[in-house]
Amino acid sequence: MSSNIKITRICQFCDADFTARTTVTKYCSHKCASRAYKQRTRNRNIEKSVAETVQVISVKKIELQAKEFLSINEASELLNVSRWTISRAIAADRLKAVRMGKRVIIRRKDIDQLFT
Ligand SMILES: [Zn+2]
After folding, report:
1. What is the distance in A from the centroid of ligand 1 to the CA of 116?
2. DSSP string covering 23-60, please?
3. What residues have CB less than 8 Å from 57, skipping those under 6 apart?
4. Is the pTM value of this prediction over 0.70?
5. What is the CA(9)–ligand 1 centre distance, in A?
6. pLDDT digits over 59-71, tens only?
7. CATH number of 67-116
């Protein structure tokens, strides 16, 4: 669509002044338009990836919360503390744990007990 109007606008990508032929032109050049498009696509992909990661983490948390018995690793993930912190709590008798062979098993109930 061509028109006779000329409007000075500011490019939304490079901030340069330019003369637009329509009231909806956002960019000074095809280059800026395609760069802006690329940036939008990139941002969308980043947002999508972040959302997926958040979802995976929360699914994992829900699974951990549903488990009756946990390893030190799982307990540390559930509480968002290091494995070392869990081990210290066990060593200090603040958290009950049972050693079974090479594995240390913690009851979820005992983790909940920490907060009562
Ligand atoms: Zn521009």
Report:
1. 60
2. TT---SSHHHHHHHHHHHHHHHHHHHHHHHHHHHHHHH
3. none
4. no
5. 10
6. 988 999 899 999 9
7. 1.10.10.10
